[in-house]
Amino acid sequence: MGTLSRPFRGSAPAAEGASGTALAVAMVVTLFLTESLAQILLPVALEASGVRSGLLIGVLLALAQGLGLLMAPPAAVRTDRAGRGGVLSAGGLAVAACAAGMALAAQGAPVWAWALPLAGYGLARGAVVTTTLAVVARSGERYRTQGLNGAAQRLAAALAAVVSVSLLAGSGAGAAGPGLWLVVPPALAFALLARRVRGRADRDDPAALTATAGARGGYLASLRMLRREPALQASSLINLNLNTVVLLGNSFYPIALDVPADRLPWLVLTLLLCRDLTSVAAGPFFGRVVARVGLRGAVTVSGVCAVAGLAAVGLAGSGFAGAALGAVLHGLAGATGIGATNLLATGEGAAGGTGLRLAATNHLNGVGMLVLPVVFGALLDLSGPRGVFLTGAVASAAMLAGMLALTPRARTR
């Protein structure tokens, strides 16, 4: 694994390439706007369409969130070598088509009719998310770009929260299904932006790539990387921890609050904005945080904030103040964790393609995103939202312990 030391003043920035940081950040905003809109609206749309079981909702969400595990490694092998722009553009179109399918399924279709568009969405996002993060990793100066990446992801989430909650507050839960059409425009915008990816952001240096080819080769190579490199294992745990926090916030904040129905949408919006705007404000300072406390310190900050935030929501019961504190802490977790996980996965001098290394971190995350929605859905039926958030805090604490055990200590220059 390459050096994971702190950045230092006077270091030469990485070559920016033809794509540049601005294009990479714009792609992140449009992609994660689609992600966040779908994640907020899907549970409400499923319930409004007649799916009453928390367990079944969890299973359907798992299709959308976890199936990407199947697509990420073969997509990474191809795009590292042959170029990312074309695959990303096609993936954006596929996401748009599947979102349209979900919106149609919400118009009174039986439960099984959701399965195909949800599975297609999950497979498409698996190829697109990892490949987009590879573009980010190869655009601009590493620490600055990763800080902007984290801020852009949470800005997109904040925009999605405003749009979704305004829709639901104005038109009721029944609007969630038709609201899935809102996922289509940003997915199409992403597909158009992806066509402009050029230079070093589009593909890796052939000399840095292994001889891996094909889907089977991609799976085996990424699994070997994950098994051999503690930094990739740490990155995987950070990914899973952050996605757990976001999943619980987007899908379970509305259930956790015991407030009058007319106030609920605006209180949920306030919580989501507390979380996401905290990340937007703190994200650009990520490089300074790493310079002061090192990458391992940033990992610690992210993990502690994630655990404390989930515990605050769970211990507060249905109280708004505890949920607001948890939301701010989750914003800080995202601001430090998003950059840290990508830097661990794509350290300077790391062997193998950028996309394949990022895909290697998705194995654990993909399995977790298949399993955790089901577990949390079942817990919701058994113990209510309090049990969901407290169990999430325990799981997050276990992941933090693993992160710290696996994150390499910084080397000095």
TrEMBL record:
Keywords, comma-separated and alphabetical: Membrane, Transmembrane, Transmembrane helix
Name of the protein in its database record: MFS family permease
Keyword Membrane in annotation: yes
Annotated InterPro entries: MFS_trans_sf
Residues passing through the membrane, by range: 21-42, 54-73, 85-106, 112-136, 148-169, 175-194, 298-317, 323-344, 364-382, 388-407
